[in-house]
Amino acid sequence: MPRTKGDHEARRRDVSEAVWRVLAAHGFGGLTMRAVAAELGATTGLLTHYFRTKRDLVAYALDLLERRTAARPRRTAGPGVSAVRAALLDILPLTDEATDSNRVWVSSWDTALADPELGADHARKYARSRDKLRDLIAEAQRLGELSPGDPARIAAGAQAFVLGLVVQALLDAPAFPPHRQVELLDDHLAALVPTPGG
Amino acid sequence: MPRTKGDHEARRRDVSEAVWRVLAAHGFGGLTMRAVAAELGATTGLLTHYFRTKRDLVAYALDLLERRTAARPRRTAGPGVSAVRAALLDILPLTDEATDSNRVWVSSWDTALADPELGADHARKYARSRDKLRDLIAEAQRLGELSPGDPARIAAGAQAFVLGLVVQALLDAPAFPPHRQVELLDDHLAALVPTPGG
């Protein structure tokens, strides 16, 4: 029976799923042609139709991570400090899906630090994410909901805080259950809010 | 000429140095018997006298990371908020040596997340580090230099902030030079200090 375009698309989705499951379980350190083939129940020979080299597989995995992150559902929130809070909550590993995704992001840092090209690409991604946060913070300041101060600097601080909280929560889930993560985030935000009469 | 105990110790130090240089350049993802042997200018055969398996090599590298971290020079500071600030500054990649060490720590997270035993060990290490920070914070509160509040919670927030700042600074060194890192840390600490008349 001849293969149809539908078969091809379905197989591509299966390959993506298999790559994702390997990443979520073993990180980039465990991402090999053999592991993806095993997850897919296929031969490594078949995999070479999709990825000629290990580097192709890593590049595909990083792209998949970015697409999955871009496509994830996001909280909606009004403008001001609620929008800043929603954007930061969207990053935290508060659900199983967000935990998998963050586990892959943390793993990608090692990969990025080992490769100048990937490192530069990661630096650009995080800079874009800080810029978005800066704009939300500037808007909250205009509304009088956040204290004045350089919004880029406040964004860099908030991004650092949230990335570090991701690391802690992944390494020690029992000590950082979702409600604890939210509590710590709210502490960070509370410090940015004008004190009454201050 | 017979090998002396001194030769053996010197060779062990050479092996440690070679493992460290491979880790600092390539992370745990690039830590192989072959890479260490090449760095040492030796055969992989020689390496198997030191590490029987790849897992032995990884365990050795994690132990080396911990010993190097414990042995690094630390800032001295009086009690109170100065001691909290010094402990947090000690973590940041403000020197080449601290940058190498942090690069290896970030890489170790992927390794730890892929292995439940190593993961539990990492969780204990970070919990101990939070406990030390909590005690310094409690002392600063007793001196009236930090606002009241659960010191364990403030310590968890400060640790998250510093770990995330490490990640940012490693991925984008030009955007996070040492003076910028210190500025952001001081913003975080300023939010914990009682406001005059507050």
CATH architecture designation of the largest domain in chain A:
Orthogonal Bundle
Q: How many strands, which pairing sense, and closed or not: the largest β-sheet of chain A? A: none
Shape of chain A: elongated
Give start-end ranges of low-pLDDT stretches of chain A: none
Please, how many helices of chain A? Answer: 9
Most extensive chain interface and residues per partner: A-B, 48 and 48 residues
Number of strands of chain A: 0
Structural class of chain A: mainly alpha
CATH top level assignment of the largest domain in chain A: Mainly Alpha
Cα(first) to Cα(last) distance of chain A is: 76 Å
Tell me what portion of residues of chain A adopts beta-strand conformation. under 5%
Count up the domains of chain A.
2
CATH fold-level topology of the largest domain in chain A: Tetracycline Repressor, domain 2
Assembly context of the chains: homodimer
Question: In CATH, what is the homologous superfamily of the largest domain in chain A?
Answer: Tetracycline Repressor, domain 2
Helix content range of chain A: over 70%
GO molecular function, one term (chains A, B): transcription cis-regulatory region binding
Domain HTH tetR-type (chains A, B): 9-69
Protein name (chains A, B): TetR family transcriptional regulator
DNA-binding region (chains A, B): 32-51
